[in-house]
C-alpha cells in the first residue's frame, strides 16, 4: 500500500423542476424529435427562483458527506467548480461551507466551465499529495438556466442545472487517483463563450457611462458554434484519453468505466467508438439532465455509483471538454 487520494463519498442533486423538450418547444422553434435526435436530451432540471448554485452544491455535498460517514467538521477545504456562482464574490464555496455549518478552513471556486470538476480533482489531488489537506470536499455545481439565452434555440435546448460532489481523502490504502492531464487553448474563445454581465447593468454606474459602445443589458448569455466545438471536442477527448493512459503505462483495454462530460450523446458515442469501448461501459446521463457543465462529470459518477456498478479496483477515466477551450482527464482505481 501507499498514500494516495481516494474518493470516499459521492453525492448528487438535481432541482425538482423538470422541463421537457415539449415544454421547450413552446418557448423556441424546436421539437422533441430534433433535440432527441441531435443531442440525446429528453429533459433538463431547472433551478427554483429561490435557489442559488450554492443551494444545489450544498445538497450534493451533504449527500457525499453522509455517504462517507463524515460531517463538515472532518473537512479541511471546500472547492466548488462553477461557471454560475451565486455572486461575483464571495465564492460559492464559502457559502457552501456556511450552509453546511463549517468554519475556518479554506474555501474557493474554480472556473474551467464544463471541465471544472476534472480540473478541480487534479488540483485537489496535487494539494493533498503536497501535504496541505487530508480531506477535501470537491463539488461541481451549476445554474446554467440563468446564463442561457432562452430565445436562442441553438443553445438553450442543451443545458440544465444540478450539482455533484465527492469527498476526497488522502490515506495509506490500495488504489485511488493515479493522475490527471489538463489542457487549455485560449485562442478558441469565440467558439464557445458567455460574455460577462456588463457593468452597465445599473444606469447609475459611472463605468457604464465610459463603455456606452457595448451592450449594457447586463445579462451573460451562452453563445456557441456547435459544429466546430463538436469536431474539436471529439478529437481532443480521444487524445487526452491516450495521453493519461500512456502516462501510467495503461491502455484502452484496461478501462472499466468512462465517466465523461455530458454535452451530447453523439460526442459520447464518437468517443466510445474511438476508445473501442461498449456504450455499456460509459456513464450516460445527458438524456435525463442535459449539459450541466461543471456538475456533469460528478453527476455521471454519482449515477454510476448509485446503480452499484463500480467494483473496487476497477479503472475509471473521467474526462471533459469545455469553453476556453479547456479539457482534461483524471484516471483512478476505485477504492470505495
Ligand atoms: N431545434 C430545431 N432546429 C435547430 C435547433 C433546435 N433546437 N438548433 C439548431 N437548429 C437548426 C439549425 O438552425 C440548422 O438549421 P439550417 O440547416 O436550416 O441552418 C440545423 O438545425 C442544423 O444545425 P447544426 O448546428 O448543424 O446541428 P448539429 O447537428 O451540429 O447539432 C449541436 C447542433 C447539438 C449544438 C451540436 O453541434 C453539438 O452538440 N455541439 C457540441 C456542443 C458541446 O460539445 N458543447 C461543449 C461543452 S459546453 C460548455 O463548455 C459550456
Shape: globular
Largest sheet: 5 strands, mixed
Question: Which class best fits the helix and strand makeup?
Answer: alpha/beta
Q: How much strand content do the residues show?
A: 25-35%
Total number of domains: 1
Helical content (DSSP H or I, runs of 4+): 25-40%
Description:
The protein has 336 residues and is α/β, with parallel strands linked by helices. The protein has helices at 21-24, 32-39, 53-68, 92-100, 116-129, 153-156, 206-210, 226-247, 265-275, 286-289, 296-306, and strands at residues 2-13, 17-20, 43-46, 77-81, 107-110, 135-143, 161-173, 176-184, 192-194, 222-224, 257-260, 315-322, 326-333. The chain is globular and about 55 Å long. It starts with a strand and ends with a strand.
List the helices and strands and how they pair.
Layout: E1 2-13, E2 17-20, H1 21-24, H2 32-39, E3 43-46, H3 53-68, E4 77-81, H4 92-100, E5 107-110, H5 116-129, E6 135-143, H6 153-156, E7 161-173, E8 176-184, E9 192-194, H7 206-210, E10 222-224, H8 226-247, E11 257-260, H9 265-275, H10 286-289, H11 296-306, E12 315-322, E13 326-333
Parallel strand pairs: 4-5, 4-6, 11-12
Antiparallel strand pairs: 1-7, 2-3, 6-7, 8-13, 9-10, 12-13
Helix pairs in contact: 3-4, 8-9
This protein binds acetyl coenzyme *A (ACO).
Amino acid at each position: 500500500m501507499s498514500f494516495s487520494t481516494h474518493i470516499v463519498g459521492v453525492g448528487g442533486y438535481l432541482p425538482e423542476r423538470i422541463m421537457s423538450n415539449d415544454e421547450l418547444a413552446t418557448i423556441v422553434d424546436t421539437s422533441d424529435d430534433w433535440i432527441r435526435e441531435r443531442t440525446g436530451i429528453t429533459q433538463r432540471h431547472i433551478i427554483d427562483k429561490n435557489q442559488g448554485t450554492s443551494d444545489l452544491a450544498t445538497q450534493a455535498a451533504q449527500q457525499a458527506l453522509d455517504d462517507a460517514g463524515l460531517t463538515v467538521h472532518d473537512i479541511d477545504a471546500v472547492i466548488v467548480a462553477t461557471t454560475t456562482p451565486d455572486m461575483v464574490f464571495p465564492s460559492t464555496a464559502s457559502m457552501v461551507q456556511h450552509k453546511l455549518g463549517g468554519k475556518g478552513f479554506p474555501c474557493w471556486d474554480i472556473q474551467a466551465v464544463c471541465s471544472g470538476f476534472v480540473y478541480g480533482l487534479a488540483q485537489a489531488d496535487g494539494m493533498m499529495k503536497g501535504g496541505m489537506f487530508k480531506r477535501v470536499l470537491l463539488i461541481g455545481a451549476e445554474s446554467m438556466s440563468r446564463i442561457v439565452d432562452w430565445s436562442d434555440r441553438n443553445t438553450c435546448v442543451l443545458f440544465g442545472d444540478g450539482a455533484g460532489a465527492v469527498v476526497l481523502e488522502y490515506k495509506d490504502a490500495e488504489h485511488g487517483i493515479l493522475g490527471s492531464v489538463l489542457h487549455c487553448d485560449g485562442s478558441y474563445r469565440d467558439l464557445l463563450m458567455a460574455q460577462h454581465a456588463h457593468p452597465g447593468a445599473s444606469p447609475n454606474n459611472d463605468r457604464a457611462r465610459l463603455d456606452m459602445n457595448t451592450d449594457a443589458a447586463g445579462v451573460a448569455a451562452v453563445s456557441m458554434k456547435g459544429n466546430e466545438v463538436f469536431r474539436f471536442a471529439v478529437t481532443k477527448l480521444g487524445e487526452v484519453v491516450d495521453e493519461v493512459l500512456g502516462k501510467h503505462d495503461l491502455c484502452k483495454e484496461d478501462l472499466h468505466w468512462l465517466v465523461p462530460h455530458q454535452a451530447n450523446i453523439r460526442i459520447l458515442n464518437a468517443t466510445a467508438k474511438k476508445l473501442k469501448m461498449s456504450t455499456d461501459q460509459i456513464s450516460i446521463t445527458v438524456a435525463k439532465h442535459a449539459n450541466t457543465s461543471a456538475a456533469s462529470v460528478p453527476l455521471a459518477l454519482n449515477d454510476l455509483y448509485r446503480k452499484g456498478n463500480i467494483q473496487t479496483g476497477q479503472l475509471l477515466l473521467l474526462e471533459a471538454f469545455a469553453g476556453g477551450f479547456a479539457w482534461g482527464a483524471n484516471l483512478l482505481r476505485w477504492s470505495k
